[in-house]
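step=encode ok
step=design start
structure_in=
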């Protein structure tokens, strides 16, 4: 039986345990990465932190190694920056309402890696906790947009065609009770990519 792969988690301290829990459920061994941690011994990365120099360097190192990478929330913006995209811009109506998430509908492109992982493309309602977003003009030319918000056309997911498993999502799949359960497959697929590569 394969050993449990170590999945590095770069996230805020208040969210780190949510990510650790979903990684454990998916069969991985979570390892919280600090800003000065290089992530040695890590087989996959969950990047949920936005674009400071340390997280940007972590994303670039993972991409250089073709390490399985799941970028979430602000991590999507970091992924975009790491591959030469522009800074995210402010958006209205997507941020949390106090402590609660807001919600909106997105369209997932059939045939995308994201659709293959979660089991379908099409329309779905997801949570929203971000105050910045990526427009098509901000997107790295090295990434493909695989999901858009229906309300404002902002990009909701990106993926790399040049890496084995690199997916970024704007919504927050670690908040399991706020989105459809098939989004757990993002974490399962990340772990499986390490186990069966």
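sequence_out=
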């Amino acid at each position: 039986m394969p050993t449990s792969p170590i999945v590095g988690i770069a996230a805020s301290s208040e969210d780190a345990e949510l990510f650790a829990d979903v990684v454990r459920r998916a069969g991985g061994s979570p390892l919280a990465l600090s800003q000065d941690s290089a992530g040695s011994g890590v087989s996959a990365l969950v990047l949920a932190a936005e674009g400071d120099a340390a997280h940007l360097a972590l994303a670039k190192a993972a991409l250089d190694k073709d390490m399985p990478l799941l970028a979430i929330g602000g991590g999507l913006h970091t992924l975009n920056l790491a591959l030469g995209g522009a800074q995210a811009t402010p958006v209205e109506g997507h941020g949390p309402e106090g402590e609660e998430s807001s919600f909106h509908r997105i369209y997932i492109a059939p045939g995308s890696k994201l659709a293959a992982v979660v089991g379908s493309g099409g329309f779905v309602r997801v949570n929203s906790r971000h105050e910045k977003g990526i427009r098509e003009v901000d997107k790295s030319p090295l990434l493909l947009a695989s999901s858009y918000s229906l309300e404002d056309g902002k990009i909701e997911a990106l993926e790399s065609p040049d890496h084995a498993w690199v997916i970024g999502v704007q919504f927050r799949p670690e908040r399991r009770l706020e989105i459809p359960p098939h989004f757990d497959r993002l974490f399962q697929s990340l772990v499986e990519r390490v186990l069966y590569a």
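step=design ok
step=annotate ok -> The helical segments are 13-25, 53-64, 74-82, 113-118, 185-195.
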